[in-house]
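Many introductory courses stop at the sequence. We go one step further.
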Amino acid sequence: MDRRNKHLSSEDRGVIRAEHDRGSSQRAIGVILGRPASTICRELARGRQSDGSYCPSVARRVYDDRRAHSRRKRRLIEGGTLHRFVHDHLVYRRWSPEQIAHRLRLMKPDEPSARVSHETIYATIYAQPRGGLRAAMVEALRQAKPVRGRQRTTLAGSAMVPESLHIINRPEEIEARLVPGHWEGDLIKGAFNRSSVGTLVERKTGFVVLCKMRGNGADAVLDSFARQMKRLPAALRKSMTYDRGSEMACHPELARRLKIDIWFCDPHAPWQRGSNENTNGLLRQFMPKGTDLSDTSQTWLNDVASLMNNRPRKTLGWRTPAEAMADEIAAFRSNVALEHGA
């Protein structure tokens, strides 16, 4: 049997001691054990005593000590500052390991020891023993798949969606995400489609607004969307892109109340609202399928939206939507001040 890749056992060290005391050469001992002579040489050096004899127990301690010091030190040690940061952002803020890793890189650019890769985060989570801590962290990794193939009552071909409002007529600046203020909207449905939450995502910054719904119909959408969007600065209410669900039957009144343009996707084309579809999938972490959403409060929805808006995003260079939106608002106010000053 080839034993060259195995560690020396207590029996091997016993043979080395006996043969060394007998005066056998390192090569001869290696032949007996099926080991290279260099392995025997290193082992004798580790266990050499002042009188030239070999002590197996000393050699074993030296070997174990060197192996312990040769291993890379773990960075994510339970109870440590870095571990707490990763745990809290993963479990409580629902950031992904990649978001956490890149955020740490931005926060600690000159401190490699204060950073950790997303692969290390994954490895640490699954290396933990089974228990409540591991369960909570693994659960935080789970993501409901984006809702696909939902059967919906549509307004396709209806006079309620004039040709002029079809997405093909939407200005190019919206498609290119050049300026803020253009939104995508939809509903997340609760158990048995009896309850829902309105979702709005700003296309350039990814900023999320959630709307408490009192019902699923067009009147509920009109009231909830108008109420929440009126909280935004008028300059950030330029347009909304929606699908052709019957809940948008009151779109003319919504456009009038908000002074906003509303565009409608093609039938069965959710990718035309890709930002919103992706966000709805992420929101299923907080509102799993089959949940009754009628009892959700606007305060709780605001907290969920805050968690989403304070996650770093790859598309934003690992800034958060809240930071990106704050930059856009600051830039707008600066331009207004310059115009007034002129």
